[in-house]
């Protein structure tokens, strides 16, 4: 029998207090800005970029939280697309995923030869995986090349149950949304994970089996969104997901669907 890894404790660990302080200083600045700056995002990057990145923020985060990271991506030559339609991202994952899918479709229609990558922070990574999984069932629709998930609680957070508000309940490790998403493995090979050294919101966060990823030297749940180290890790992941050696995901999915249909037909023939 395989031994189960103990669930991470919600207890505050040594050194976390200082991480909390720096993390919330950055988060507070972004919250204040997002409340007073209601203009739509203007940062887009080059329209003819080979890679277009769709940026999905975390819970309670408006698009402003993703802007420091977006500046690094644009400087590297990528185009970026925010999702202001999510507002503060308080809706359930299953309601938010169609909004992001619509953005993917618009980017694909406007830039048919571009490679599209989702970059999600925290809950944004869960939404991004839901988009990849849902699109895998529609292989003829626009397919993102993959997802870069920064500080995403794929296995939930032991501290989610202590935060008031139904909007964070689905981030608890026991939530049906997370359990169902974890059982969906079709997209895992196209997900790259970037984790902070210490994440005060997600103690003990690990790279899920079947995904690839890296752990940063920097700590914090929000602060890495503005660090060069995290930006470089995200850029490395984007390069890996959009390498010319990797086939377009739509072709792979169409072949998988055809194989599944052939297997079903042969099984039916054998029964007759």
Based on the model shown, name its key terms.
alpha/beta; disordered N terminus; 11% strand; globular; 272 residues; six-stranded parallel beta sheet
What is the terminal separation in angstroms?
A: 40 Å
Q: What about the largest sheet?
A: 6 strands, parallel
Unreliably modeled segments: 1-6
Number of helices: 7
Shape: globular
**Strand runs, count:** 6
Structural class: alpha/beta
Give structural notes.
The chain is an alpha/beta fold. The protein contains 7 helices and 6 strands; from the N terminus they run αβαβαβαβαββαα. Strands 2-1-3-4-5-6 form a 6-stranded parallel sheet, sandwiched between helices. Helix 5 links the parallel strand 4 (146-150) and strand 5 (191-195). Helix 3 crosses helix 4. It is globular, with a radius of gyration of 19 Å.
What is the secondary structure topology, with strand pairs?
Blueprint: H1 16-36, E1 51-56, H2 67-75, E2 79-81, H3 93-110, E3 115-121, H4 123-136, E4 146-150, H5 176-183, E5 191-195, E6 212-215, H6 228-241, H7 249-271
Parallel strand pairs: 1-2, 1-3, 3-4, 4-5, 5-6
Could you give a quick summary of the protein structure above?
The protein is built from 7 helices and 6 strands; from the N terminus they run H-E-H-E-H-E-H-E-H-E-E-H-H.
């Amino acid at each position: 029998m395989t031994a189960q890894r103990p669930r991470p404790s919600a207890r505050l660990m040594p050194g976390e207090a200082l991480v909390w302080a720096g993390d919330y200083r950055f988060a507070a600045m972004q919250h204040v800005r997002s409340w007073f700056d209601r203009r739509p995002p203007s940062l887009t990057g080059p329209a003819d970029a080979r890679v277009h990145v769709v940026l999905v923020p975390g819970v309670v985060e408006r698009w402003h939280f993703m802007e420091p990271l977006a500046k690094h991506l644009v400087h590297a030559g990528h185009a970026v697309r925010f999702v202001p339609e999510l507002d503060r991202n308080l809706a359930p994952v299953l309601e938010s995923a169609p909004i992001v899918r619509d953005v993917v479709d618009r980017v694909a229609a406007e830039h048919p030869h571009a490679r599209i990558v989702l970059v999600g922070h925290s809950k944004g990574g869960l939404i991004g995986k839901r988009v990849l999984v849902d699109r895998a069932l529609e292989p003829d629709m626009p397919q993102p090349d993959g997802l870069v998930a920064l500080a995403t609680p794929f296995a939930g957070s032991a501290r989610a149950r202590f935060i008031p508000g139904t909007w964070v309940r689905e981030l608890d490790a026991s939530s049906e949304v997370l359990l169902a998403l974890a059982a969906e493995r079709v997209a895992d090979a196209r997900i790259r994970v970037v984790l902070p050294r210490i994440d005060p919101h997600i103690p003990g966060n690990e790279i899920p089996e079947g995904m690839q990823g890296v752990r940063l030297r920097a700590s914090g749940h929000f602060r890495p969104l503005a660090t060069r180290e995290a930006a470089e890790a995200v850029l490395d992941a984007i390069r890996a997901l959009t390498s010319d050696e990797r086939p377009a995901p739509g072709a792979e999915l169409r072949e998988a669907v055809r194989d599944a249909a052939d297997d079903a037909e042969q099984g039916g023939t054998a029964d007759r």
